[in-house]
Write a structure and sequence with these properties.
By secondary structure, the chain is an alpha+beta fold. The chain has one domain: endopeptidase domain like (from Nostoc punctiforme) (endopeptidase fold (from Nostoc punctiforme), Alpha-Beta Complex), CATH 3.90.1720.10. It is 33% helix and 24% strand. Strands 3-8-4-5-6-7 form a 6-stranded antiparallel sheet. The protein has a two-stranded antiparallel sheet with strand order 1-2. A hairpin with a 2-residue loop joins β5 and β6. The chain is globular.
Length: 156
């Protein structure tokens, strides 16, 4: 029983979320086609959610995790349904080189042995995310912590 509990705990950590996945919507918009409008929508989302605490598996303003925040942002701002977990989100869209990032691209980080983190790129090396320590916030890819943890980027 104890081994099963540990396996479940590790699985939850590695996905940054425990909720079931959702599929991409059929009528998906190209979020990054207008970088200025995309960035404006993301900044507005930050204003509305700034400081909302991190909660593993959370999907509301009472608490939200990183992949849940990505799902909420894409759904409410762009009408796009994304998968629920970081493990699923890392496989959508196309790979983007860090030097080619545009507003709306997803940025992924390896924050531990099996833990992953995701945020949404804003531009100027800034990204929006649900931080475990400070809740929903904007951080810099140039921050020493995030710079060493950066893993990959995707354009949904």
């Amino acid at each position: 029983m104890r081994v099963l509990a540990i396996l479940i705990f590790v699985t939850l950590l590695s996905a940054c979320s425990s909720a079931p996945s959702q599929s991409l919507s059929a009528g998906k918009k190209n979020v990054s086609s207008n970088a200025s409008e995309t960035k404006n929508q993301l900044i507005q989302m930050h204003r509305e959610w700034k400081g909302v605490p991190y909660r593993l598996g959370g999907m509301s303003k009472k608490g939200i995790d990183c992949s849940g925040f990505v799902v909420q942002t894409y759904q409410s701002r762009f009408g796009v349904q994304l998968p629920r977990t970081t493990a699923q989100q890392k496989d959508i869209g196309k790979s983007v080189n860090k030097s080619q990032l545009r507003a709306g691209d997803l940025v992924f980080f390896k924050t531990g042995w099996s833990t992953r983190h995701v945020g949404i790129y804003l531009g100027d090396s800034q990204f929006l995310h649900a931080s475990t320590s400070q809740g929903v916030m904007i951080s810099s890819l140039n921050n020493s912590y995030w710079k060493q943890k950066y893993w990959l980027s995707r354009r949904p």
